[in-house]
Structures are given as structure tokens and as C-alpha cells.
């Protein structure tokens, strides 16, 4: 049976709306599964995040990183809708750049539709995002794409929507009001405008075209670019996509494409080390105008037996702890540079910092949007149990092959709290307390010391194996250990970036 038919019969059988979300900090390999399931779907829709996300699309053998347009766009030619929903913060510059790439490759995007209610990313969002990060020494480590400020404008009731670019007068009125806010904030943060000017010279901000020496932001330049240039290019794609999706629900096959990961969700993550949208299934469904119960299958992707995070924030199982965090955040650090600096790194090295570097290389773990080395740690079951509470218990494990040469596998089963006495309402958390599910509080998480279970490695190349039964027994033991300990069901396993490097599971013990 072909992989496609296997997935249809064992995973998608009878389903109408299927969602792919990430149960960790993002970068777990959603793109591969969106691609795999795109052949099944009639509609592929994104509902959260913005150009902070990144997925690789191969065009004519060349890899391109796309940030906004769903990975399903390569199936436009087969009559599939690709939709960006209202929950997305949409930077038209990025969409136009991605359309240019598709044009160059001769690929169609006739059925690309953009929500009229998507939140509009404006130059001031990118400026304030970068000014704030520079001021705080990259406290959050954002991607600098204006994501947080754009979502803040929604709750602050001063935001613009994508549809506004089609109505020049309304756009100007709303923009003036919005800029008044940012001019006030920036006059305190950057009174001499030096940072603003420098940031605005970036190509993401039209190489300085939006900068005004007298008014900081050149309103006319922004209006012209958004309501003439961008509106001319993408205006015909803007529509009420939510109404269309509600109409499709239950009739057409809908694939919901998550962005980022549950642990970065503004609602479920660990403040302030989060992105600004709800990356859970709840945010995703809402972000395309559907209800959570419209999704009849939610697949949560889990990297195993390691995991990664980009940017700052607690990461209890990190290989090399604080040293690794500082190293990965270091200015200009890249995978090549760290290989040159630490050539003796190895998967079985005694020094876990060096083990981390080897994992990063084996898994090619660098940020798709930022190019930063991703921080790596052991699979953390308290975090997985936490994510499964919202995203459900069906999971896909990815990248297990990265550990093919590893002697032993460590998995975090629980934490022991080692911080100072900590008041939680009436209760006081004390040293020695065991935690099985991650608490949503970075103050607790940063003092949570992992308790590891150790399993033997399988020491065998696995990337060519096609069935669950043919996997090394020790790898199957690991999969079933994760299922038992985290109370999840592993539906598929990925053993490499290619489509065929995928194992479909039909339930424990069978395939
Ligand atoms: P922002 O989304 O740019 O505001 O960044 C907030 C945090 O989310 C930072 O720690 C980023 O590194 C992280 N983040 C945002 N998007 C992604 C992603 O697609 N993968 C991994 N981390 C991300």
C-alpha cells in the first residue's frame, strides 16, 4: 500500500477537518506533515502567527523558506484552496515576496485567499519590536517581525486589518491614530530617533523609505505602499475567508496548519517567553473562523527523544543548561561557527554541552526565520502532558533518527522542585516537591530539575525503515514508553525529511 493510502486508511479515515499543531516550542516538522496531508485536503488554512514562522518549500530542487503562504500552495495547481485566516498577523511585504518566488518558478496561486480580518503588520510594529529587544538586551529573543506589537494593537483597539488597504481614506484615518500611539511610545524609548532610523534602513522596511526626519514615520510613503502597491498586488485575494470556511466545514476536507508551538502560546506558554498568538488547537480553529469541535482529528507534533527552543526562556532539560542558552543566543552564532569552535563534539560525549552541539548538527537545528542555533534538550514529558491537555492525545513523533548512533536515551519523566518556597494561592510549593505535569509558571519551571529515565539506544540506521514492526525493538520500546508515561497515542513517526521516511502506526503492535 502506498504511503498516501496508508495515511488515508489508518489516520484520516472518515475525517473532514484535520489539524496539525506542535506540542513543543515550534520547529517540530509540521511542514512535512502539512505537505503529506495536503494531497488529501481540499483546503489548507493557517490561523495563527505571522512571518515569525518558517517552513521550507522546495521549488525546482531549490529550498526556499516561506513565512506566510501555507505550504499547501504547491498544490494550488490541483485545485486546492490555501487560506490565511483572521488570526494571522499579515505583513503584505512578505506575501508579495513569496508570490514573486512562486511567479519566478512558474507556480500558480489562483486559489490563495487572505482574510479581510487578518491583522495588518505595519512598519511601526517592526520598529518597536526591534527597538524594545535592543533596549532589553533581547529579553524575549523575538524574531523581529513585529508580531507582538501587531497583536497588541488588536487588544489595544488601535489595529488595522488587511481589508483597510483597500479603502484609502479609512486606512489613512486609522493609520494616523495608530502612529500617534507609536510616536508617543518611541519618543520615550528612542528620543533622538537614531535607533528608529537604523532599523528602518533594513530591507524589511523598504530600505528607509518610511523614515521621516521630522515626523519619524512618513505617513504618505506608508499609505502609498500599502494602499497602492500592496493593494494592487494582493487586493484580489482578500475576502471573507471565515465565512467560506464555515461553509466548507463538514463538507470539504480541511487541513488546519498550526504555527509555532503550544509551549510558546500566549495563552498556555510561559510569560513573557511566548509569542503573541495562541498556538494551540483552540487558537488555530478560532483563527480561521471555526470551532474547536469542527476539528475531528488533532495531530500534535512532538520531536523525540530531544526537543528544541529558539529564543529566551526556561528549558529544564537543555543540554548544557545556561551555558548552552548563552551560547545559542550569542551574537552571530551559527551552526558552522560552533562546529569550528567545538570540533570534538559528539552524540555520546560526556560533556552534555558538546552533546548538544552534536545533536544540533545531526538534526540541522537552526531557526528557519532567524538562522540562530536552536537550543536543544531531552524530551520533556511533564511539558508533553501539559500540551496534551489542550491539543489532545494523538501525536506524531519526529526526528527519532537523529539519535540512531546514541548509546543511551534520557527522557525527563518528572521534575523535582529545587527553588525557594513559592506561594501558589493558599498552597506553598517547597523544595523536593515532585511535579509530573509542567505548571504554567516560569518561576517554577526555572527551578524544576528533571528526573530522567534512561533507555538504551538502538545503534542502528533507521531512516530507510518503512514499517513499525521493522523498527529496532529498542526504538519501539522508546515509543511505547512515551505513550505509557505521557498517556498519548503515537499515530505516525518521522525518520527523515523525505515523505517516504514516514511510518504509519495502526495502534500499538500492529502496522
Ligand atoms: P515573536 O513571535 O517574534 O514575538 O517571538 C517570541 C518568541 O517566540 C521568541 O522566543 C521566538 O524565538 C519564538 N518564536 C516565534 N516564532 C517561532 C517559530 O516559528 N519557531 C520557534 N520559535 C519561534
Question: Explain this structure to me?
Answer:
The chain has 511 residues and is an alpha/beta fold. Among the domains are: 16-114 and 241-293, Adenylosuccinate Synthetase, subunit A, domain 1 (Adenylosuccinate Synthetase, Chain A, domain 1, 3-Layer(aba) Sandwich); 120-234, Adenylosuccinate Synthetase, subunit A, domain 2, CATH 1.10.300; 306-378, no CATH class. It contains 16 helices and 23 strands. It has a 10-stranded mixed beta sheet, sandwiched between helices. A 3-stranded antiparallel beta sheet has the order 20-17-21. A hairpin with a 2-residue loop joins strand 18 (422-424) and strand 19. Helix 4 (123-135) packs across helix 5 (147-155). The longest helix has 22 residues, at 168-189. The relative contact order is 0.14. The structure holds inosinic acid. Inosinic acid (IMP) binds next to helix 5.
Map the helices and strands.
Layout: H1 3-10, E1 17-22, H2 30-38, E2 43-46, E3 55-59, E4 62-66, E5 81-84, E6 89-90, H3 92-104, E7 112-115, E8 119-120, H4 123-135, H5 147-155, H6 168-189, H7 194-200, E9 211-212, E10 216-217, H8 219-234, E11 238-239, H9 241-248, E12 254-257, H10 281-287, E13 297-303, E14 306-309, H11 321-329, H12 335-341, H13 352-362, E15 375-378, H14 381-391, E16 394-398, E17 408-417, E18 422-424, E19 427-429, E20 434-435, H15 442-445, E21 448-456, H16 473-486, E22 489-494, E23 502-504
Parallel strand pairs: 1-12, 1-13, 2-5, 2-12, 5-7, 6-8, 7-11, 13-16, 16-22
Antiparallel strand pairs: 3-4, 9-10, 14-15, 17-20, 17-21, 18-19, 22-23
